TrEMBL record:
Family, per entry: Belongs to the GPN-loop GTPase family.
Cited SUPFAM superfamilies: P-loop containing nucleoside triphosphate hydrolases
Protein name: ATP/GTP-binding protein
CDD domains attached to this UniProt entry: Ras_like_GTPase (cd00882)
Organism: Streptomyces coelicolor (strain ATCC BAA-471 / A3(2) / M145)
Entry keyword annotation includes GTP-binding: yes
Keywords: GTP-binding, Hydrolase, Nucleotide-binding
InterPro entries associated with the record: Gliding_Motility_GTPase, Gpn, P-loop_NTPase
Length: 201
């Protein structure tokens, strides 16, 4: 049990609330992921993709996409009665990245979504979290029609540290997304424990 708080015979406790970011390149499925698991109607800030944006908004691979996140997505999921996650989906397009610093304030960890057809699109998100020592998990969003690669191959292509978890997922599937989110919480806890051990008392 991650938080080790015994429930036996006690009144319900105030849940621990954690903030998790959902990042990754343009159109990789961040808004879809937050919408798939959120138990409240997710807050979205979608704007129509326009003719004017066509030269910079590369929709290849997601041709059915007509909108894009301009500020953030927000959702909530109760993983256990004493553990609630607040999800903040970031905008994928570079011109909205000034939002990221604001959104990452106080975050426990992050999911970096990746699409194997456009892996390079998530490099910037990986760099961002590595530089700030924010624990993250890479979720490979398995769009149908995209080639399936072994996790090890994707890991090498992303030049990921060995201890960064990499999981295959479907951003539209609640159970699949829950697994990814549990992975983020566990990874963040492990890293925090490692850091505590590393600091001499
Ligand atoms: N086939 C398939 N389509 C998906 C999957 N995940 C997302 N989509 C579709 O891909 C498109 C992009 O999804 P979004 O959730 O808007 O992506 P996003 O990362 O929030 O995009 P931006 O905010 O613009 O960066 C949408 O049309 C989704 O319906 C998936 O796993 N499989
Ligand atoms: Mg979005």
């Amino acid at each position: 049990m991650i938080f080790g708080r015994s429930q036996r015979g006690k009144p319900p406790v105030e849940p621990v609330t954690l903030k998790i970011l959902v990042a990754g390149g343009f159109g990789v499925g961040k808004t879809t992921l937050v919408g798939a698991v959120s138990e409240i109607r997710p807050l979205r800030t979608e704007e129509l993709l326009t003719e004017a944006g066509r030269p910079v908004d590369d929709v290849s691979g997601v041709e059915g996409k007509h909108t894009t996140t301009v500020a953030m997505d927000f959702g909530r999921i109760t993983l256990r009665e004493d553990l609630v996650l607040y999800l903040f989906g970031t905008p994928g397009q570079e011109r909205f990245w000034f939002m990221w610093d604001e959104l990452s304030e106080g975050a426990l960890g992050a999911v970096v979504l990746a699409d194997t057809r456009r892996l390079e699109d998530c490099f910037a998100a990986i760099d961002y979290f590595e530089r700030r020592s924010i624990p993250f998990v890479v979720g490979v969003n398995c769009f149908e029609g995209s080639a399936r690669y072994p996790g090890e191959t994707v890991r090498q292509a992303l030049d990921l540290d060995e201890d960064v978890p990499l999981v295959m997922c479907d951003a539209r599937d609640r159970e699949s997304v829950k697994e990814v989110l549990i992975g983020v919480v566990q990874h963040a806890m492990t890293q925090a424990a490692d850091r505590r051990r590393a600091v001499p008392t």
